[in-house]
């Protein structure tokens, strides 16, 4: 098996970061939710806040862990790593990965809206949107890795 370049390691590390961040955050949120007794309005407010906070949690964790990836890669390989602007190939890969992210997210969002229309439990409905965000992020990272490996 050939050695992975930094461009190929980045989506794999991002995938790992996404899963670890989500599992940790979801575990914390589940503990908070179990402690509270909320009416319907309180549940909607709680889960809405959870989703709003999830976005900065993902962003901050990815920034921190990408810095760690750069440091670890520099220590292991001894190469001075530069993240220059993406070339056309990198932009094309990002566009295709983003497209896959949005397609999966839209399907999850439509399932979320359908669950609200059919009067599912608020807990179930908001978990549908949370996990559709997770699956979308995983698909984006895997797509980026696949396109990087296959050469689009």
Brief summary:
Helix content is 84%, strand content 0%. It is mainly α.
What does this structure look like?
The chain is flat and about 55 Å long. It has four helices and no strands. The mean pLDDT is 88. With 152 residues, it is mostly helical. It has one domain. Helix 1 (6-35) runs antiparallel to helix 4 (122-150) and helix 3 (88-117) packs antiparallel against helix 4. The chain has helices spanning 6-35, 40-77, 88-117, 122-150.
Task: Considering the chains and any ligands shown, give keywords for the structure.
flat, 152 residues, mainly alpha
Radius of gyration: 18 Å
Task: Note the total helix count.
Answer: 4
Order of helices and strands: HHHH
Helices and strands: which structural class? Answer: mainly alpha
Rough shape? flat
Total tally of structural domains: 1
CA distance, first residue to last residue: 20 Å
Largest sheet: none
**What is the tally of beta strands?**
0
Would you tell me the overall average pLDDT? 88
């Amino acid at each position: 098996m050939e050695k992975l370049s930094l461009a190929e390691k980045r989506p794999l590390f991002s995938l790992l970061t996404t899963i670890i961040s989500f599992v940790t955050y979801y575990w914390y949120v589940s503990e908070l939710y179990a402690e509270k007794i909320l009416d319907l309005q309180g549940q909607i407010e709680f889960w809405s806040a959870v989703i709003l906070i999830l976005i900065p949690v993902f962003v901050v964790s990815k920034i921190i862990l990408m810095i760690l990836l750069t440091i670890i890669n520099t220590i292991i390989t001894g190469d001075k790593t530069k993240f220059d602007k993406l070339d056309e190939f990198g932009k094309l890969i990002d566009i295709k990965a983003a497209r896959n992210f949005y397609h999966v997210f839209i399907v999850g969002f439509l399932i979320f809206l359908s669950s609200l229309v059919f009067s599912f439990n608020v807990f179930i409905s908001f978990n549908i949107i949370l996990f559709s965000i997770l699956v979308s992020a995983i698909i984006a990272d895997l797509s980026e890795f696949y396109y990087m490996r296959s050469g689009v």
